[in-house]
């Protein structure tokens, strides 16, 4: 690292909204902050928390976030000051901009400056409207303060030729759709499902199941395989067996629902699995995690969350209960 963790400033820009905020990487969790700093600049689809409250997050092109551990953790992110910037093992950069309801630990790396908090609140409200109802695609750019923007996706490599060809194809598909919705997902959300998945020609149940399978496949299964390969002494034979147990069935189901490329990539991964040493295994599961988490991010944006907008939480004890 050529610079200290403190004194580094990043700009978080939403060009479509005309909003820029500046945050300082303030020395907390330097490994995470370094990984973020070294990956700049990048762009991503901006997301918003759907169950946790006033929280922005987006998918970041940093494979190392899957296994780096933040030692300086806030036990309950609800208690973090507004404007706190977090890096997550779910490959997210998050920003708390108001009230949160989810009591979970989090690893902070910085803080949005106080004078930019009104702009951050404005961005949060605009992104919520986009994710929940309008479906406007709002992109975010994160860059070193005072520098030009840009964007790149990491392309990992493997010694095994079949694995390396797979990595190239997964990388190309990830790069192609990092900033534009994958056609398979866009078609699905328009009701075009070639397999006919969706009983009695319904669409919403299929979308719900795709969301419910994609997110844990990326976050838990592939993220867990990455962490197993890096942070444990688990033998490579055991890692291969865990991959067989965790990824095939959900990927096959998602292929039936319309994610054909994911199912094809998964079959190719399983076919070359026995030839992979630890380094090649780590490269493949890391690249696959980046791709699947991308699918998850787009699915969260495209999903019709306002379909049951009239259904709202009851704030009076006992309200809505049937006796």
TrEMBL record:
InterPro entries hit by this protein: Cucumopine_C (IPR040602)
Q: What is this protein called?
A: Cucumopine synthase C-terminal helical bundle domain-containing protein
Q: What positions does the domain Cucumopine synthase C-terminal helical bundle occupy?
A: 164-302
Which Pfam families does the UniProt record give?
A: Cucumopine_C
Superkingdom of origin: Bacteria
């Amino acid at each position: 690292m050529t610079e200290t963790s403190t004194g580094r400033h990043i700009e978080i820009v939403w060009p479509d909204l005309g909003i820029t905020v500046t945050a300082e990487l303030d020395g907390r969790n330097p490994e995470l902050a370094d990984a973020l700093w070294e990956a700049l600049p990048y762009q991503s689809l901006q997301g918003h928390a759907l169950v946790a409250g006033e929280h922005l997050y987006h998918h970041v092109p940093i494979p190392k976030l899957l296994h780096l551990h933040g030692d300086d953790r806030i036990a309950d992110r609800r208690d973090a000051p507004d404007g706190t910037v977090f890096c997550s093992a779910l490959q997210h950069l998050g920003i708390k901009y108001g009230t949160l309801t989810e009591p979970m630990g989090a690893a902070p790396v910085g803080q949005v400056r106080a004078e930019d908090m009104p702009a951050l609140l404005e961005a949060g409200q605009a992104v919520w409207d986009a994710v929940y109802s309008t479906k406007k695609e709002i992109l975010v750019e994160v860059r070193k303060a005072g520098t030009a923007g840009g964007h790149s996706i990491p392309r990992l490599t493997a010694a095994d030729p079949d694995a390396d060809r797979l990595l190239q194809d997964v990388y190309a598909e990830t790069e192609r759709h990092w900033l534009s919705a994958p056609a398979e997902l866009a078609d699905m959300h328009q009701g075009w499902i070639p397999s006919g998945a969706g009983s009695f020609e319904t669409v919403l149940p299929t979308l719900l199941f795709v969301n419910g399978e994609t997110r844990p496949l990326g976050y838990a299964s592939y993220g867990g395989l990455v962490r197993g390969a890096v942070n444990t002494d688990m033998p490579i034979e055991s890692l291969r067996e865990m991959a067989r147990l965790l990824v095939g069935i959900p990927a096959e189901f998602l292929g039936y629902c319309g994610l054909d490329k994911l199912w094809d990539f998964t079959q190719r991964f399983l076919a070359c699995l026995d030839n992979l040493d630890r380094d090649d295994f780590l490269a493949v599961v890391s690249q696959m995690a980046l791709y699947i988490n991308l699918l998850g991010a787009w699915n969260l944006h495209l999903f019709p969350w306002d379909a049951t907008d009239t259904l709202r939480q009851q704030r009076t004890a006992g309200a809505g209960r049937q006796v």
